[in-house]
Design brief:
Layout: H1 11-14, E1 17-20, E2 31-35, E3 40-41, E4 45-46, H2 48-57, E5 67-71, H3 80-90, E6 96-99, H4 102-114, E7 126-130, H5 139-149, E8 155-160, E9 163-169
Parallel strand pairs: 1-7, 2-5, 5-6, 7-8
Antiparallel strand pairs: 3-4, 8-9
Helix pairs in contact: 4-5
C-alpha cells in the first residue's frame, strides 16, 4: 500500500475532547468609565448638595444597556454613599455596574456569563478551554471556569485540542 492510499485518522476527533471557547461568553455591550473625580470641588472633596443637584438633573437613560465601571482618578476621599447614589441611578438602565477598573468589569461580565453554563452537560467530560482569540479574556475568567468545572469534569486542559496543557484530571 502506498502512502497516498492510507486513510488519515483524525485522532483529535476520536479523543472525545470537548472544546469550550470563553470568547463565546464575551459580552459585546459598550464599556463606559464613569470617573467621579469630575464632581470633586477643586479636585479634593465632594460637595453633597452639588452632587445631589447633578444626580437629579442628569439624563441617566444614556447608559441604557451599557457596562459601567465607576472610578475616581483623583487622590481624594469620596464618601461611600456617593458611589451608592451613582449606582442607584445607573441601575435602571445599565447592564452591569461595578466599582473598579476595566479589568474588574471584564471579570464581572465573564463571571455573570459563566454562571449560566449548564455544568451537568460537562459531567465526566474531557474538556479543553480554548486559549487565544480575538476578544480579550481576562485571567480571572480562566480561574472562574476552572473553579466551576473541576468538580464536574473528568479532565480539564488549556489550549487547542491538538496541543493542550493538562490542568486537572480526576483521580480514579
Amino acid at each position: 500500500m502506498s502512502t497516498g492510499d492510507e486513510e488519515i485518522i483524525n485522532k483529535v476527533a476520536m479523543s472525545g475532547l470537548i472544546t469550550l471557547d470563553l470568547e463565546d461568553y464575551f459580552h459585546h455591550g459598550e464599556r463606559v468609565e464613569y470617573d467621579i473625580a469630575q464632581h470633586l470641588f477643586q479636585g479634593l472633596i465632594l460637595k453633597e448638595k452639588d452632587f445631589r443637584d447633578f444626580i437629579k438633573g442628569h439624563d441617566w437613560s444614556q447608559y441604557q444597556d451599557k457596562n459601567i465601571f465607576i472610578t475616581c482618578s483623583a487622590d481624594a476621599i469620596v464618601p461611600t454613599w456617593a458611589y451608592m447614589l451613582l449606582t442607584s441611578r445607573f441601575s435602571p438602565y445599565a447592564h452591569m455596574i461595578i466599582f473598579g477598573g476595566r479589568e474588574e468589569l471584564e471579570g464581572a461580565l465573564f463571571r455573570e456569563a459563566l454562571a449560566k453554563i449548564p455544568l451537568e452537560e460537562y459531567r465526566n467530560a474531557k474538556l479543553v478551554i480554548k486559549g487565544c482569540g480575538k476578544y480579550p479574556v481576562p485571567a480571572s475568567a480562566y480561574v472562574e471556569i476552572s473553579r466551576l468545572l473541576t468538580p464536574v469534569v473528568q479532565s480539564l486542559m488549556y489550549g487547542e485540542p491538538c496541543s493542550t496543557v493538562p490542568v486537572f484530571k480526576k483521580s480514579k
